[in-house]
What does this fold into?
Amino acid sequence: MYLAAPSAGGAVFGAVGAGGISLVLAALLVLGVKGKGKVKLKDNPAVIFAFLAGTAFSAAGKIWANPERLISQGLTGLGVGTGSGGAFGDVGVGAVCLLLVVIILCAPLSPGLSASLGLISAVVFPLAGDSTIWAAPVELAMAILAMVAA
It folds into this structure.
């Protein structure tokens, strides 16, 4: 018994693609954060699914890359990672990653804010570099997405 057509490249759900998985995860976030249906994303699941969605957005490119561009421009505008000592002094991308984790773990979060922080983390973590600890969640998210959408 096959779960996908043989021409689907071995993906469990058939041909999905990066744009398709981005669309599905965006719908899951919007509907799950609203919580009026059967699926209600609370704070931690919202962060996780938003991180997966943000990673998928980066992989899909095109219109899905707009949040990534917006966040990157905002960080650059604040002088983060430039070494020029912006509004907060010399703040590196690693410090922003740590700040995001502290907020996610310590602040009281609504599902909407959790999803926002997950999306931001999906953009900021890869900016810290491949050899940092922040690459691990990105690699895990990419592996999960690769299993679903080949």
